[in-house]
Write a structure and sequence with these properties.
It comes from Undibacterium curvum. By secondary structure, the protein is an alpha/beta fold. 41% of the residues lie in helices and 13% in strands. An 8-stranded mixed beta sheet has the order 3-10-9-8-7-4-5-6, sandwiched between helices. It has a 4-stranded antiparallel beta sheet with strand order 11-12-14-13, covered by helices on one side. It has a two-stranded antiparallel ribbon with strand order 1-2. The chain starts with 5 loop residues before the first helix and ends with a helix.
């Protein structure tokens, strides 16, 4: 049997042209040889001088590798005897026997828990978050980053100790105060600063509500269609979803739905996502009365309410609630930029202390310098000014997109959801496969979402496309829609 020669082995893999230093290469090769049992335990290694001569490299290079292996426990030095490979194989007591017939190479999905599988199996986030016609993404290139940078620099020049430690109390207090004032003035939300909890966005707000107010098996009404992110969080938390159809007045439960009393009612009353209708006053009053009678929690996602192009933004559902049944949530992702990861949750007074405590236990508040910058941005009036400018910009882009749709299709498609927000929806004839259309558009560099993917009940799905226009330059709208229109026309 041929005796293993360490220097021959190393010479096969040492790469003199690599940017990786020779000493690191040598260390990694020897470590891998030990882990792969090419160098079995108790093997005596050559002296550093001998190995250096055989490899024709510096002795210091070999010494570095030996010292690093020794520090990490892969080898051991024996006084007067030399350096030996240590026994790195774990004790068998820590290695349960593999069941007969099992496959050691388990798939990624098979390793997940049931909850984990429910979450990732229906993931809807797109890997591309910019360009025509990605829904729900603002034009981040128009953000006043110089103003933001100046405010942030001022805070960082002399940061208070309290902003650099773990946060507490539901977020940075001045931000909670200015958010409460903003919501009272612009959305008719009935709240004080103590009811506001600063989160890192809608997903965390929903997750906090589910963790503190639900148990597995509880029922939740959700609009059908609805935002996939909220639906997936509910499913992953073990909540039983009861999809409720929407009509022109918003969520519309029938007698069978009313008989199944939910723990939660998830709604987007000011701008239904993704269809864009506004919940009527009569429907709002009925929903609040039902929640009061049966003890349900209404979770109001005030989606895109700031960007309304016909008239003033509508008042919130929370502002009509006199029985403390509504939890109101919003985010700065659309008004500022998504990478900011800041949102807010407005709680009924009876829940504010448990939620502040729960937030601290689950997530630990932080990012106080970031929250302080946001507070100053709002206090100094930059936030309101930015919203006004962006509302005009998005309104102009919406008009261009509507003109392009009319130019290509006239009455062949129905456009819905054009009164507010950052997107609109195209309803297509039922014979159209909107999943296929979206896939073909993606191959041509145009990103749209199939409307059918927002529905929970297969039989109620409508074919269509959801198009975002906020992050598309004016000049790019027509060329991008030309591409999409050619694809749609093949399916009409």
């Amino acid at each position: 049997m041929r005796t293993f020669n360490l220097s021959d082995y190393l010479l096969q893999y040492l790469d003199k042209t690599s940017d990786t230093p020779r000493n690191r290469q040598l260390y990694r090769l020897m470590r891998q040889a030990i882990l792969d049992r090419v160098l079995p335990p108790d093997t005596r290694l050559p002296s550093s001088r001998d190995l250096a001569n055989e490899l024709q490299i510096s002795r210091n290079t070999v010494l570095y590798a030996y010292e690093q292996l020794l520090a990490e426990g892969y080898v051991e030095a024996r006084a007067g005897s030399g350096t030996y490979v240590a026994d790195t194989v774990p004790d068998t007591v820590f290695m349960p026997p593999t069941p007969r017939g099992s496959n050691a190479a388990v798939s990624d999905w098979a390793q997940l828990s049931q909850r984990g599988h429910r979450l990732v199996a229906h993931a809807g986030a797109s890997p591309q978050q910019w360009g025509a016609f990605v829904p729900g993404v603002p034009d981040v290139t128009r953000f006043p980053h110089k103003i933001w940078s100046s405010l942030q620099s001022k805070i960082w020049r002399n940061p208070a100790v309290a902003t650099l430690t773990y946060g507490g109390g539901g977020g940075y207090q001045p931000l909670r105060e200015v958010v409460a004032e903003y919501l009272k003035g612009s959305r008719s939300v009935d709240c004080e600063a103590g009811q506001v909890v600063i989160t890192n966005g809608i997903h965390q707000s929903i997750d906090l509500c589910l963790r503190l107010l639900s148990d597995p098996g509880d029922v939740a009404w959700v609009e059908d269609p609805c935002y996939w992110g909220a639906r997936n969080l509910l499913t992953a938390s073990g909540i039983t979803i009861r999809p409720i159809r929407v009509d022109p007045e918003g969520i519309c439960p029938d007698h069978a739905d009313l008989a199944v009393v939910p723990r939660f009612i998830f709604v987007t009353p000011s701008h239904q996502y993704p269809l864009g209708m506004v919940m009527s006053l009569a429907r709002r009053r009925s929903l609040l009365e039902y929640a009061k009678t049966h003890g349900c929690w209404i979770i109001e996602d005030d989606y895109d309410s700031e960007f309304r192009y016909n008239g003033r933004p509508l008042a919130s559902l929370q502002g009509m609630d006199s029985d403390e049944r509504v939890l109101y949530m919003g985010t700065f992702s659309k008004t500022m930029f998504p990478g900011l990861r800041l949102g807010y949750l407005v709680l009924p007074p009876s829940l504010k202390q448990p939620f502040v405590t729960g937030m601290e236990e689950l997530h630990r508040s932080g990012q106080a310098p970031l929250q302080a910058t946001m507070a100053e941005f709002m206090i100094q009036g930059h936030f309101s000014s930015h919203i006004r400018k962006m509302r005009l910009l998005y309104g102009a882009r919406l008009e261009i997109l509507q003109q392009e749709i009319a130019r290509h299709f006239a009455d062949d498609v129905q456009v819905v959801g054009t009164d507010a927000g950052l997107h609109l929806a195209l309803r297509l004839p039922e014979k159209c496969d909107d999943q296929l259309i979206a896939g073909q558009a993606r191959e041509q560099g145009v990103i749209v979402r199939p409307l059918s993917s927002y529905y929970h009940v297969p039989d109620s799905r409508n074919a269509g496309l959801v198009l975002g226009y906020a992050c598309v330059n004016d000049a790019n709208i027509a060329p991008a829609f030309d591409v999409l229109a050619r694809i749609i026309r093949r399916h009409l």
